[in-house]
Specification:
Blueprint lengths: L2 H6 L4 E2 L7 H7 L20 E7 L23 E3 L6 E3 L3 H4 L6 E7 L5 H10 L12 H9 L8 E4 L16 E3 L2 H13 L1 H16 L4 H17 L3 H4 L7 H7 L3 H15 L3 E6 L8 H25 L6 E7 L2 E2 L11 E2 L3 E6 L8 E2 L1 E2 L6 E3 L2 E2 H12 L6 E3 L5 E3 L12
Length: 417
């Protein structure tokens, strides 16, 4: 594992293999022994929760939200009109097109990071990777700054381990659901064995008197936190059998669709930050067929999520973000693919105090350059934190006494307000 991975990643993924091993500590770090407090206590906050749809590998902007039909760089991708006047996106996203009054596109996002791990670190923390300096992920910052004690996780990562909290503490790290259904089965097994946990505690008390081992205290803490989590709304939130077949069909029956539906249910249960991952966007070869398949999973899930949040009165307080670590080259390579391109790529945002139906920035005819209104990654993060009511200029005291800023000089994009 590289230093970057070890600092940025949380390897405590909730899977059959890890649940009773390394993953257990990360899992139980969230079921803290506190009474539920005021989850949305941040004064002046527009956003109360955030759902990130993470496109692992770097999605092609030209084949999703910044198509260039008629230009050689555009390839066979066609554009369609959307519900937002004058806003066109790729024809492979017709259901998302119908939701564009509620979403805005940033077409001028840019960075200097064209390598996967470094770019993923940047788009998860808002900071470039620096050896020896750890930055907390966005989810960890939201968890930390939100205020109020809760008994359920504040930050959940679906489909990936997630990026860690750095110096903010493990209680603000990601609760990783490799597979929500598998996680639910494990929680049910733990619930059925709760009596055994209590018996083990009783039998171990005398032993502990003569063994001052910190691991023993950790064991008891894990047992208590297990019981605490089982008694919250969390297990029910990840149980999709509670949803009608019609709803599950609208999201799509694949893993990404299920993840987006779980994300909506988690936000309803009080989780503050959820990331749902869809991998496969590193399309160096056969880009157009690959993107077509990916959009087949993305389109129903993304659109159903936005539509449901609106219908349930949650979109005003729930920010939704679609993004990856960078874009793809406008020029099509010899393998009918597109390579890494951080110079000008797209993100989609909406809800949580952000405007819909707008396009921020523009690329030139071939997509090679930003033609107007560039937006840095730091600007995007400053915008997110501003909508949560956080001071994006806040400084933290990091590891070894280092000073770490919430954002690295970013300015909120007021055109999105």
């Amino acid at each position: 594992m590289t230093n970057l991975e070890s600092r940025g990643r949380c390897d405590m993924c909730l899977s059959r293999r890890h649940f009773l091993g390394a993953g257990l500590g990360g899992f139980f770090a969230y079921a803290m022994r506190h009474r539920a407090g005021d989850l949305f206590a941040q004064e002046g906050a527009k956003a109360k929760a955030c759902i990130v749809l993470w496109m692992e590998g770097g999605p092609s902007q030209l084949d999703t939200f910044d198509p260039k039909p008629g230009h050689a760089n555009g390839g066979p991708t066609k554009a369609i009109e959307t519900a937002a006047k004058g806003v066109r996106i790729a024809a492979s996203l017709p259901r998302v097109a119908a939701q564009m009054k509620r979403l805005s596109i940033v077409r001028s996002l840019n960075s200097a990071e064209g390598e996967h791990q470094r770019a993923q670190y940047l788009l998860h923390t808002g900071h470039p990777f620096i050896e020896g300096v750890a930055h907390p992920s966005t989810g960890a910052v939201v968890s930390k700054e939100a205020g109020g004690a809760v008994t359920i996780p504040r930050y959940v990562s679906i489909g990936q381990p997630g990026f860690g909290p750095a110096f903010l503490g493990q209680e603000h790290g990601p609760f990783a659901l490799e597979n929500p259904q598998t996680a639910l089965e494990m929680l049910r097994k733990l619930d059925s064995k709760r009596g055994r946990f209590q018996l083990a505690q009783e039998l171990g008390r005398e032993f502990e008197k003569s063994h001052e081992d910190g691991l023993l205290k950790l064991r008891d803490g894990l047992m208590e936190r297990t019981a605490a989590l089982l008694d919250t709304a969390f297990p029910k939130a990840i149980d999709l059998s509670q949803e009608p077949d019609e709803v599950r069909d609208r999201y799509g029956r694949g893993g990404f669709g299920a993840g987006c539906l779980v994300a909506r249910r988690l936000v309803e249960a009080g989780v503050r930050f959820v990331e749902v991952s869809l991998g496969g966007w590193d399309t160096h070869q056969d880009n157009f067929n690959a993107v077509g398949r990916l959009c087949g999973a993305l389109d129903p899930a993304f659109s159903a999520l936005v539509e449901d949040l609106e219908k349930r009165g949650l979109l005003d307080s729930t920010m939704v973000m679609w993004m990856g670590e960078f874009g793809r080259t406008p020029a099509i390579n010899a393998d009918t693919g597109r390579d890494h391109f951080p110079r000008a790529f797209s993100a989609v945002v909406g809800g949580g105090g952000l405007a819909g139906g707008r396009v921020i920035g523009e690329t030139n005819a071939g997509g090679m350059e930003i033609a107007r209104d560039p937006v840095s990654v730091a600007d995007l993060f400053a915008t997110v934190f501003d909508r949560f009511g956080f001071d994006h200029a806040k400084k933290y005291r990091g590891e070894g006494g280092t000073v770490v800023k919430m954002t690295e000089g970013g300015t909120p994009v007021k055109a999105l307000f």
